[in-house]
Amino acid sequence: MFIFKSSIGKKFIQAISGAFLVLFLLLHGTINFFSVIDSFTGKYGIAANDDILFSEGDGLFKLGCDFMSTPVIDIMVPILALGVLVHIGYGCWLTFINIRARGGVKRYEVSSKAAADSWSARNMFVLGLVILGFLFFHLSHFWAKMQLPEMFGIGNYENNPYLLLNATFGNPWILAGYLLWFVAIFLHLSHGVWSMFQTVGWDGQTWFKRLKVISIIVAALIFCLFASTAVNAFVQANFIGA
After folding, report:
1. In this predicted model, which residue has the larger pLDDT, 218 or 241?
2. What is the 3-state secondary structure (H, E, C) of the chain?
3. Closest Cα to residue 222, out of 17, 16, 15, 22?
4. Is the pLDDT score of 28 beyond 60?
5. What whole-number percentage of the chain has pLDDT above 90?
6. Domain range spanning residue 198?
7. Is pTM beyond 0.70 here?
8. How confident is the model at residue 110 (pLDDT cuts 50, 70, 90)?
9. Contact yes or no for 108/93 (Cβ under 8 A)
10. Which of the listed residues 3, 113, 116, 181 has the most CB atoms within 10 Å of its CB?
11. How many domains does the chain have?
């Protein structure tokens, strides 16, 4: 098929699957940031010990986690996650076939005006590998203790998500690793969002600088959502909740 064989088609698949990645991170980061809001409203750590969704008095972050368990989100999240997996898998495959075809280690073929002045544009594959490698570490901390037991009955379910935040980010070394991971995500997105728009044709002189700014804003927003959640949990675990 044309979309799988042509250069434009390959980039289009990466662009669309990349859009799923951005949406997934924005949704996930927003829910996580609710825990920071809870710190200012006195609701941090408050979660009813029951299986009822949206229990009265729960903190905003717990309510957000309950929202992620509703039927609509149960359908949407796997679709978004599938888009992320396609983006990762297809990116690795494109890089491999280009290395083999061009006889050297080069990133997947993208005609980019940003490549000349962007370190992240020249190292998208390396950043992607860093993000992918740490992703499995992240899943062991949260997904394996919430969604996995809930969806498949494997392992012990943790009903209080605040405890998982404190247990994970309360360790300064784990916090440092996560912050480096968030930096890698920021660098990846700062070029990836721009490249996504370029692929669909928004690369004229008028929009070039605007899209670069938009990309940095989106990447910075996602970084701040996740980083503030992690740092806040560290403070809660080691100073306020101690």
Report:
1. 218
2. CHHHHCHHHHHHHHHHHHHHHHHHHHHHHHHHHHHHHHHHHCCCCCCCCCCCCCCCCCCHHHHHHHHCCCHHHHHHHHHHHHHHHHHHHHHHHHHHHHHHHHCCCCCCCCCCCCHHHCHHHHCHHHHHHHHHHHHHHHHHHCHHHCHHHHHHCCCCCCCCHHHHHHHHHCCHHHHHHHHHHHHHHHHHHHHHHHHHHHHCCCCCHHHHHHHHHHHHHHHHHHHHHHHHHHHHHHHHHHHHCC
3. 22
4. yes
5. 34
6. 2-240
7. yes
8. very low
9. no
10. 181
11. 1
The tokens describing 190, both together, are: 């700062």
pLDDT at 39: 96
Give the C-alpha separation, 119 to 83, whole Å: 25
The tokens of 39 are what?
């710190």
Tokens matching residue 133: 């490698």
Locate 129 and state its tokens.
Answer: 């590998």
Is it the case that residue 8 has pLDDT exceeding 70?
Answer: no
Look up tokens 């590998």; give the residue: 129
Check which CATH number belongs to the domain holding 94 and give it.
Answer: 1.20.1300
Q: What local confidence, expressed as pLDDT, does residue 26 receive?
A: 94
- Copy the structure tokens of residue 223: 């970084």
The identity of residue 44, as a single letter, is: Y
